[in-house]
């Protein structure tokens, strides 16, 4: 769902320059990851307000989908991808007690509007928390959250700092430990909106995408676990359909792929049964262990 500003000027950064220097070699020392999918639903969430369809009235908990977000533990370090409108309840549900940085995929409402709920993470630790984003995303966040990012922030506002990124970067700890984590942004097209996916170790998170530029695949070599946008079986102008998502998953070649951002057109049990064995629908609260990367050229 778009933010109020639908006319952000797209920056000139391109897929090839963004993945320049990225790749599995940067992640050789990344520890095993614990990845929790906080939310797996589209912009309305599921159930949809006022809807009485079979999915919205389902008693299968996997058919209840809050808005997309992801939490990653790498050693002691905690990395959050997106702060949607359901972030507060997601953080309570998963007992999240540490966030060292946030990576934003894009500026749409359903991925950013929970930003203010980061404030409690500063009650005991005042250290600044970087928020990494595409330049277009950062520009929209600055305009929309002047009381946080402006020259005169509101007293008590979250101590977050926007970091525009157009290539690989490293997250460092906000705590008294030496933890660091390499992160590679991956340029995606979400309709006409530029968005970032992120690669961390053997894991990649690519939500809200209708096209992956050819050069972006170069940053996804050796991925073990892939989380990928798959809105519904039918085509859509700004999201992958199931068939499109399967085709792109095959090109990426991850050992396991999980679909996210599903609408209320998708009943979990029925849709999952028709997917390939190595592709599954994700659900809220799904936790996946991602092993450290095998050395390049090794065999399983």
Key words describing this protein structure:
7 helices, globular, 300 residues, single chain, disordered N terminus, seven-stranded mixed sheet, alpha/beta
Describe the structure.
This protein is an alpha/beta fold and 300 residues long. The protein has a single domain (15-290), classed as Ribonuclease Z/Hydroxyacylglutathione hydrolase-like (Metallo-beta-lactamase, Chain A, 4-Layer Sandwich). The chain is built from seven helices and 14 strands. The protein has helices spanning 15-18, 87-93, 109-112, 135-144, 146-149, 242-252, 268-272; strands spanning 33-39, 69-74, 77-81, 101-103, 129-133, 160-164, 169-172, 180-190, 193-200, 203-206, 225-229, 256-260, 279-281, 287-290. It has a seven-stranded mixed beta sheet with strand order 6-5-4-3-2-1-14. It has a seven-stranded mixed beta sheet with strand order 7-8-9-10-11-12-13. Helix 2 (87-93) links the parallel strand 3 (77-81) and strand 4. The longest helix has 11 residues, at 242-252. The radius of gyration is 18 Å and the shape is globular. The protein starts with 14 loop residues before the first helix and ends in a 10-residue tail after the last strand. Residues 1-11 have low confidence and may be disordered.
């Amino acid at each position: 769902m778009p933010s109020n500003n639908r006319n952000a000027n797209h920056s000139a950064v391109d897929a090839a320059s963004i993945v320049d220097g990225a790749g599995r070699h940067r992640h050789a020392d990344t520890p095993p990851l614990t990845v929790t999918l906080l939310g797996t639903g589209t912009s309305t969430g599921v159930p949809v307000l006022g809807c009485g369809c079979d999915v919205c009235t389902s008693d299968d908990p996997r058919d209840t989908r809050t808005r997309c977000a992801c939490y990653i533990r790498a050693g002691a370090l905690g990395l959050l991808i997106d702060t949607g409108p359901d972030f507060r309840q997601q953080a309570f549900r998963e007992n999240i007690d540490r966030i060292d940085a946030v990576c934003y995929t894009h500026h749409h409402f359903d991925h950013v509007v929970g930003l203010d709920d980061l404030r409690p993470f500063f009650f005991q630790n005042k250290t600044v928390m970087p928020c990494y984003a595409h330049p277009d995303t950062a520009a929209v966040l600055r305009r929309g959250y002047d009381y946080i990012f402006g020259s005169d922030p509101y007293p008590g506002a979250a101590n977050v700092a926007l970091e525009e990124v157009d290539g690989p970067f490293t997250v460092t700890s906000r705590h008294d430990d030496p933890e660091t984590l390499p992160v590679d942004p991956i340029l995606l097209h979400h309709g006409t909106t530029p968005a970032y996916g992120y690669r961390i170790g053997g894991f990649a998170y690519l939500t809200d995408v209708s096209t992956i530029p050819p050069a972006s695949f170069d940053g996804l070599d050796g991925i073990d676990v892939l989380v990928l946008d798959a809105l519904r079986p039918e085509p859509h102008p700004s999201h992958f359909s199931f068939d499109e998502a399967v085709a792109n998953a095959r090109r990426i070649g991850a050992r396991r792929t999980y679909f996210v951002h599903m609408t209320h057109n998708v009943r979990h049990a029925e849709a999952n049964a028709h997917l390939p064995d190595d592709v599954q629908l994700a659900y809220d609260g799904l936790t996946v262990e991602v092993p450290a990367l095998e050395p390049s050229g090794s065999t399983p």
